[in-house]
Amino acid sequence: MVANAENLGGPSTVADDPRLTKIGRNFIKRYNLDELPQFINVLKGEMSIVGPRPEVSEVIALYPEEERASVFSVRPGITDWATLWIRDEGERLKRSSNPHQTYLEEIWPKKRRLQVKYIQNHSIWTDIKIMFMTLKVHLIDKF
Questions:
Q1: What is the total count of domains within the chain?
Q2: Residue 2, class by beta-carbon neighbours within 10 Å (0-12 exposed, 13-18 middle, 19+ buried)?
Q3: Helix (H, G, I), strand (E, B) or coil at 64
Q4: How far is Cα 122 from Cα 120, in angstroms, rounded to an integer?
Q5: Ramachandran region of residue 93, left (φ > 0), alpha (ψ -120 to 50) or beta?
Q6: CA-to-CA distance for 27 and 20, rounded, in angstroms?
Q7: Which of 22, 90, 101, 113 lies at a C-alpha separation of 20 to 30 Å from 63?
Q8: Residue 29's domain spans which residues?
C-alpha cells in the first residue's frame, strides 16, 4: 500500500483500491504474498496457521458479546473456512459504492458463521484439511 493508506480509505480493501501500489495490486495481493509476514506472528505465538481471521477493531466492536468471547477464545489464524469461502472479496467489494458497508452486510455475517463453525468443530484434522485446501486454492490453482 501507499504511505498513509490508513488515512486515505476505509478498513475494507477492494481489488482496484487506489491505495495499493502497482506491484501490490498486480503481484503481492494476487498471489496472497501480503499474508507471509503473518508467519512471524505464528512464530512469536501470537497467531496460529489455522483459526478465525483477525478483524479490525471497528468490526470487532460489532460482534455480539457471546460470539466475541468465543472468537477470542482461540488464537487468530492466517487461514480458516472463510478464507476458502470468499476467494474474491476484493473483487466483490470493488463493485460496491460503499465497500465497507457491503462487507458488513454481505460478507461478514457468513464469515462470523464460519468462525463459529470452526470453533465448535475444531480438531487437528480440521486444521490439516483447511491447510491443504488453502494451499490448493491459493497457491496451486493460481499457477
A1: 1
A2: exposed
A3: coil
A4: 6
A5: alpha
A6: 11
A7: 90
A8: 5-142
- Say which DSSP state 6 is in: G
β-strand partners of 48: 77
How far, in whole angstroms, is CA 105 from its chain's centroid?
Answer: 16
Backbone angles phi, psi at 99, to 5 degrees: -55, -40
Taking the C-alpha atoms of residue 118 and residue 86, their distance in angstroms, rounded to an integer, is: 15
2-12: pLDDT as tens digits: 565 565 566 66
Count CA atoms closer than 13 A to 124's CA, side-chain side. 0
The predicted pLDDT at position 143 comes to 58
In the structure, what pLDDT confidence band is assigned to residue 87 with cuts at 50, 70 and 90?
confident
Instruction: Say if CB 88 and CB 11 are below 8 A apart.
Output: no
- Lowest average pLDDT, out of 65-74, 108-117, 134-143, goes to 134-143
Total-model pTM: 0.74
**C-alpha to C-alpha distance for 39 and 46, rounded to whole angstroms:** 10
Q: Write b or e for each residue in 36-74: b if 16 or more Cβ atoms lie within 10 A of its Cβ, otherwise e.
A: eebeebeeeeebbbbbbbbbeeebeeebeeeeeebbeee
In DSSP terms, which residues pair with 50 in a beta bridge? 79
